Amino acid sequence: MTVTAQAGDLSGTALYTSQVWAWGELSHAHLFASPEAKRVFDTTNAVLAAARVFHRKLPPLRHALLHRHAMIDHLMHTSGYRHVIELAAGFSRRGAAATSDPRVRYTELDLPPIVERKRDLLQRTDEGRAVLARPGLRLVEGDVETVALEPFVHSGEPVFVIAEGLLMYLTADARRRLFTKVRQLAAIAGGLRFVFDLTPTCEEPEPGLVGRALEAAMKRSTGGRGCERDAPTRETIMTALAEAGFDSVEALVSSDLAHLWNLPQPHRRTHVVLFVAQASSRTTPPSSPGRDEG
Ligand SMILES: C[S@@+](CC[C@H](N)C(=O)[O-])C[C@H]1O[C@@H](n2cnc3c(N)ncnc32)[C@H](O)[C@@H]1O
Predict the structure, then answer these.
(1) How many Å lie between the centroid of ligand 1 and the Cα of residue 234?
(2) pTM for the complete prediction?
(3) Is residue 246 part of a domain?
(4) What is the pLDDT, as a whole number, of residue 105?
């Protein structure tokens, strides 16, 4: 089975990122490498290289994504949490890598065609089949907006929730609904840490003419779904998390941490903004979302 971008889906972006993990030589990335991912990666990089001739400030996309992925790995490993839910996991190799430790329980969620394709990719090799057979790894088909997450949480076992490369495609309303939904899991788990990336609009580079052409090309390759751009500042995002009932929120930036955390290719200057929100079972989340943050 091959994954082709359908109206509104983001499979093209998931293919691109899977090839970034392989290009960055991250562990287990080879299990998800494919010719179609390589094609998407090469084509996008060619467009980016052309755009950079005219617009040298355009950020190096693959380096930013590599830093993003490695930062989340770092946060997960240093958290000590052994129970992870990765929303919109795409072709992430993180679940395969993390469940090398048999004490880790890892649930990945994505839309059915992506999960089906991911299973197919793992089925290709003995190593992949062994990963697929691990009791600690569960690949779940579902829509983050509608699927119930409670069945994937274990009572009294703190859970680490990841949403990488997803929030920029959600409207402010959808984002707030997701914050509330994730926050509610803390009551069962007894504690929760939620990590996601989202660059506030005011921190994005001005796209310019060539940049806008690139964005239009990327939009076509993802079936017409583009970035929502309605998270103006870090404060708007942090306020929305607080309103959803998170106890504490921190924003982390890749350029501050690349050397300190020994990220791959740390000399590459990137601007990835991660949010880390913490919730305990003690505080009660609001039953309905507050005002619109956007
Ligand atoms: C940019 S990719 C990121 C994939 C992966 N997290 C990574 O960083 O490599 C976005 C992913 O979000 C998934 N996605 C988009 N909308 C979704 C939804 N409503 N429910 C579940 N997954 C969704 C897409 O299928 C795709 O795999």
Answers:
(1) 22
(2) 0.89
(3) yes
(4) 97
